[in-house]
Model the fold of this input.
Amino acid sequence: MKFTIRDSVKEDMPQVLGLINELALFEKEANAVLVTSKDLQKDGFGEKPLFHCFVAETGNELVGTALIYPRYSTWKGPVIHLEDLIVTEKMRGSGLGTALLEEVVKYGHNLGVKRISWEVLDWNEPAIKFYESKGANVMRDWDVVQLDEEGIKRFLENT
Done:
């Protein structure tokens, strides 16, 4: 199946949200997605977009997406973070994941970033093998640390 990869536009966000929800279901977190398509439209477009998004489409259907945003490394300098690379189930194995990752890498290279980073679930062996086959270093000795909204509130209440 043929596909095209391009920069997203505001009007893509309802379908991007559908892909995000598909990923959440795959990751056994179906009820964890709180963002709306309006949030994505507001946050990704305008004067100071918080993220950049590539979409892959076939016909009028989005079948993949890669959402990235800038970060800064105190050791390296400018970097980007790949929040999610999503390929809809029917397109897995088609080369779409590789094509999306290539767009992200070219984008980062053109920005002159020193690193592109992302996380992968430790049980998602197909994704780990895919990333390693592309030359990525899966750092299994690092743990992700987060404060969610409730954790932020509790932290501030206790300081």
